[in-house]
Amino acid sequence: MAGARSRNPQGWPLFAHSFRPFFLLAAIQAALSILVWLPMFYGEVSLTSAFAPRDWHVHEMLYGFLPAVITGFLFTAIPNWTGRLPIQGPSLGALVAVWLAGRVAVTLSAELGWAFALLIDAAFLALVVAAAAREIITGGNWRNLPVVILVLVLLSGNVAFHLEAHIEGAADISIRVGISVVVLLIALIGGRIIPSFTRNWLVKVNPGRLPVPFGRFDGAVIGCSALALIAWIVAPLSVVTGVAMAAVGTLHLVRLARWAGDRTSRERLLLILHVGYVFVPLGFLLHAAAAFGALPASAGIHAWMAGAAGVMTLAVMTRASLGHTGQALTASVATQAIYAAIITAAVARVAAVVWPAHGDVLLHVAACGWIAAFLGFAIAFGPLLLGMRWRALATARAVAPAR
User: Fold this and answer.
1) Using an 8 Å Cβ cutoff, are 86 and 8 in contact?
2) C-alpha closest to that of 300 among 290, 310, 309
3) Are the C-beta atoms of residues 2 and 141 closer than 8 Å to each other?
4) Taking CA atoms, which of 16, 72, 202, 276 is between 20 and 30 Å from 290?
5) DSSP-derived 3-state class of residue 222
6) Burial class (CB in 10 A: 0-12, 13-18, 19+), 42
7) CA neighbor of 6 nearest in space, from 68, 71, 78, 73
8) DSSP per residue over 44-111, as a string?
């Protein structure tokens, strides 16, 4: 892995590294979107969006919130992958502005026009793909090019979402495309960082059985996952899809068992990564059950989105925020409370589908847990991401007498 070059950041610390603005804004948007969605679901609130209420909710989670987290992670990792300078300062600020413009355009698309909203919204991921591809190709880091390809597919899914919603009145296929990309990104990136971070900690703190590093088996599981997800996109409730989902879900359970997650209970910052990944095989298995008529199809979707995506984003956001700001890599009480809230939200959201008789109560529990988790992240990590501690430390060093 190439070592990252760096330059001394100028101006507001928020735009010194991509994880700072994108993690903070993604957390705020995730909380506010669900805060608005619940009364929308019950018909108490309406928006001036060209999307139907369900489609607005799904779009802002799938193509609004998650791309911000992915971008924050990607442009923080790429300098480590390539040794090139990070995107920061005015360039990063412009990228953030495009993302914010997309959120406004989608929400007001009934007045602005669906085509204009599409152009503004799609511009963000287009810029992310172009910048990431440039950095990886120029840096000769071909190993990580599949990540950019998946983000390109996510961009295609976003464009298709707008078109499908306008032409058909509702987006379905493009929703499955976007979810499939998110699952594959978690499988690919999680499959590299979870065993790596776990190994590094175990070697220092808890010697013994170590996780198996990323290898051919992992590559085969990701390949099989891609095939099963393609089948799900095309024919979500077919028997073939059900069999494929069951087989791939089992493979992901085997994969997870190889990472020694049971030995990380002493450090919640690591344990949460393993817990988050549990929702990947759970989603596959729930989709298999849906294909055979045992459960509604949305059970697996929420296992992946509220569970795998929700838990894994917070796991990565908290760890990266601490690590890249020079803080100790350990979960504070506030961080553990955030983890408890998001796990509660994920379990309650899946349970609301599985036990519809208690759906209303469980839906409110899920919404409250989700809002508490992401708003909690914004409150607990906001000062760190805004650079308040950094600024105080820099000032203290500047006035300290030379030794």
Assistant:
1) no
2) 290
3) yes
4) 276
5) helix
6) exposed
7) 78
8) S---S-SS-HHHHHHHIIIIIIHHHHHHHHHHHHHHHHH-PPPP-THHHHHHHHHHHHHHHHHHTHHH
The 3-state DSSP class for residue 387 equals coil
211 neighbors 193 (Cβ within 8 angstroms): no
3-class SS shares of the chain: helix, strand, coil, % to 5 = 80, 0, 20
- Residue 253, helix vs strand vs coil: helix
Cβ distance 250 to 225 under 8 Å?
no
User: How far apart are the C-alpha atoms of 356 and 146, rounded to whole Å?
Assistant: 39
Q: How many CB atoms lie within 10 A of CB 110?
A: 14
Q: Is 81 left (phi over 0), alpha (psi -120 to 50) or beta?
A: alpha
Closest CA to 95 of 165, 206, 21, 192: 21
CB atoms within 10 A of CB 215: 11
Q: pLDDT (tens digit, 9 = 90+) per residue, 277-292?
A: 999 999 999 999 999 9
pTM over 0.70: yes
Tell me, letter by letter, the H, E, C secondary structure of 126-157. Answer: HHHHHHHHHHHHHCCCHHHHHHHHHHHHHHHH
Query: pLDDT tens-digit profile of 170-195?
Result: 899 999 999 999 999 999 999 999 99
Tokens 């990309």, residue located:
181
Report d(CA 256, CA 262) in Å as an integer.
Answer: 10
Which amino acid does the sequence have at 12?
Answer: W
